[in-house]
């Protein structure tokens, strides 16, 4: 996969989340995992081919590749652009692209405010030089701009990150669960790469009892006769749903709704 000149080349790396989600990897597997992430970041993904991915990762064994594959998702399935990538990596790519577009828009607006049509629409690069030097006949001399003092910016979490507590190692558990869910008969396919908005996924995956029961519940989805439509993921993650499915609360037929007929007045000769 060729690298696009417009792609981003600096990969945001969240050290705590990375270490927490790779504690089960060997040193060789961890190094190969980083190579896969770097390749996917600059090229939009890695080929959906085991042999090709092993070469990209530095010649690892297929057993190590299988551990890495569990953390990747398939994008654009069935199209010429089919590829593998990491769900959080794609979310970060979207954030970086939005920030880049926002800065570009702000820069163009500032250029129009400073130079007007001369600098951005009707003039050339050479037209701006006499203006910057203060020699343009229609403008006052512009004092040189002092060099700003470097400022250290401390990043603060955004409102979106505060609302999404599943970011981090819980997302690595989400990736294999999403693939298992989409393969399950009787489950409505979940198309987004990320979990449902809110804390339901984090609360479920942090519950040991839920982790033990959900495979049993998935196995029963196809046989639930009470539901005409496939079970949605938001239903499945709702409080108590997995336990009720395992307990057989939904095994029977749906109770038909009883229609109450309006009482007719008694017949009379009057």
TL;DR of this structure?
48% of the residues lie in helices and 2% in strands. The protein is mainly α and 270 residues long.
Assembly annotation? single chain
Number of strands: 2
Strand content: under 5%
Task: Give the overall silhouette.
Answer: globular
- Contiguous runs where pLDDT drops below 50 for at least 5 residues: 118-124, 152-166, 257-261, 266-270
In spatial order, strands of the major sheet run 1-2
Structural domain tally: 3
Q: What does the main sheet amount to?
A: 2 strands, antiparallel
Topology as a string of helices (H) and strands (E): HHHHEEHHHHHHHHH
How far apart are the termini?
Answer: 90 Å
Mean pLDDT: 75
Share of residues in helices: 40-55%
How many helical stretches?
A: 13
Estimated radius of gyration = 29 Å
Write up this protein.
It is a single chain. The chain has 270 residues and is mainly alpha-helical. The chain folds into 3 domains: 15-85, no CATH class; 89-132; 163-247, no CATH class. The chain has 13 helices and 2 strands. The chain has helices at residues 15-21, 27-43, 50-56, 62-69, 87-115, 117-120, 125-132, 159-163, 169-183, 200-205, 208-220, 233-236, 241-247, and strands spanning 73-75, 83-85. A hairpin with a 7-residue loop joins strand 1 and strand 2. Helix 2 crosses helix 4 and helix 11 (208-220) crosses helix 13. The radius of gyration is 29 Å and the shape is globular.
